[in-house]
Write a structure and sequence with these properties.
Number of strands: 9
Strand order of the largest sheet: 3-2-1-4-5-6
CATH superfamily of the largest domain: NAD(P)-binding Rossmann-like Domain
CATH architecture of the largest domain: 3-Layer(aba) Sandwich
Structural class: alpha/beta
Radius of gyration: 21 Å
Strand content: 5-15%
Number of domains: 2
Helix content: 40-55%
Amino acid sequence: MNASPVNASPVLGWLGTGRMGTVMAGRLLDAGRDVMVWNRTAAKTAALARRGAVVSPSIAGLADRDVVFVMVTGPAELEQVTLGDGGLLTGERRPAVLVDCSTVSQDTSARIRDAATAAGVAFLAAPVCGNPQVFADGQGSFIVSGPPGTFETVRPDLERMAGSVTYVGDAEQARLVKLAHNLYLGMMVQSLAEVVTLAEKAGTSREAFLAFFNSCALTSPWIRRRSPELVTGQRNLTFTNELLRKDFDLGLAAARALEVPMPTASATYQVIQTAIGLGLREEDFLSLCEHQAHIAGLRDGTESDLSPTSPPRA
């Protein structure tokens, strides 16, 4: 149960204004919502301040908000901003609801949920699917788990940010659903990289192969949208190989705990690791296609060839 009831139109806090957080909080501001923001690097809140957000000088400043959303890089960052020194759950004043949109393990999520419950704060796990541009276009997705009543309270604001909001259970189920999604995403891109490279080495251009592939039932809106980047090599930075590796680490750990064999995901993990070892850590994960071309002898492997990422669009 919440320590106090949530207002019918709750005032909001937002913790973490990186590329994703800025876009998501911006959609709430565009919808006329009252949003206070905080970020470890204060300069990254400037764009939202210009759009009407109130900037808090500390995490503690968010404690009076009814609902606080969190969007940080991973488990260590989530624990720091919630349970660390000056964390959101450590002060005398606390929000009524905490909504975490980060990608973390079920174990981490359960620890934060237990701490939130002990502090009288309702907790929703609400990881996202979609990059900043997808969310900017209103086409992102939320996967949500936690108390059903709390979900219904927060649902209107989730729907202001995303085109799809799916409730999947009353505990940590959303975490594993998100990890399963990202495992598939990595396996899909590696599979695409392999067949594109095979056709290209046999003498068919990428452009021609993708024109054919995108006319078939096996393609997807995601592949169609990003095919021009595969043709030109000018990738938009949406999701780095390092972040993809983190999600594979979490997803494969969950598979081991549940005794689920993941042979294709395990092989893809090694490809991601090799790409990172070759210097593609901060590149968009579409660089796996250039990595595949390189190991097939179609590229010379120079930095300019393997790393043509363009600036982020968000």
